[in-house]
Amino acid sequence: MFVPKRILVPVDFSEPSTRALMHAIAMAEQFGASLDVLHVVPNPYVDDPAGLYLPLPVTYVNDLMNDARKRLDDLLDSADRQRLRARPIVKVGDPLRQVVAYARDESIDLIVLGTHGRSGVAHLFLGSVAERVVRTAPCPVLTVR
């Protein structure tokens, strides 16, 4: 039987990712697994092919990261972090790449990921990070809608 020891929950602070976190907490409690809660701040310093790039303040990314850390602290208080051996993590970059790299580098056993459940044109244009994580992750992925 598959028993995860390390569970990764990528969160973007949306309702689906909060639901995924609740499922991951229940699984971590049931299996005695540790919980890694990851938020990826999209890199705002990407090339602008249109040449309309406006310089951002030097502290912009740090401000985004600090805000993400505070929001992660609001999701899991210190008692939850201790009980679940939960680690809040903030990374900067492409969410898909960061989630998959983190799972690979940290030997994650299971990713629990929220999905917005878009379909049709919205899915075509916006894509699905969840779908791409499922296809490229080095471990099983449970999607929660």
Short characterization:
Helices cover 46% and strands 20% of the residues. It has 145 residues and is an alpha/beta fold. It has a single domain, classed as 3-Layer(aba) Sandwich (Rossmann fold).
Describe the structure.
By secondary structure, the chain is an alpha/beta fold. The protein has a single domain, classed as 3-Layer(aba) Sandwich (Rossmann fold), CATH 3.40.50. The protein has six helices and five strands, in the order βαβααβαβααβ. The protein has helices spanning 15-31, 60-75, 78-84, 95-105, 120-126, 129-136, and strands spanning 6-10, 34-41, 86-92, 110-114, 141-144. A five-stranded parallel β-sheet has the order 3-2-1-4-5, with helices on both faces. α1 (15-31) links the parallel β1 (6-10) and β2 (34-41). It is globular, with a radius of gyration of 16 Å.
- Biggest pleated-sheet summary: 5 strands, parallel
Question: Do you know the CATH topology?
Answer: Rossmann fold
In round numbers, the mean pLDDT is 87
Overall strand count: 5
Q: Can you count the helices? A: 6
Task: Describe the protein's topology.
Layout: E1 6-10, H1 15-31, E2 34-41, H2 60-75, H3 78-84, E3 86-92, H4 95-105, E4 110-114, H5 120-126, H6 129-136, E5 141-144
Parallel strand pairs: 1-2, 1-4, 2-3, 4-5
Helix pairs in contact: 4-6
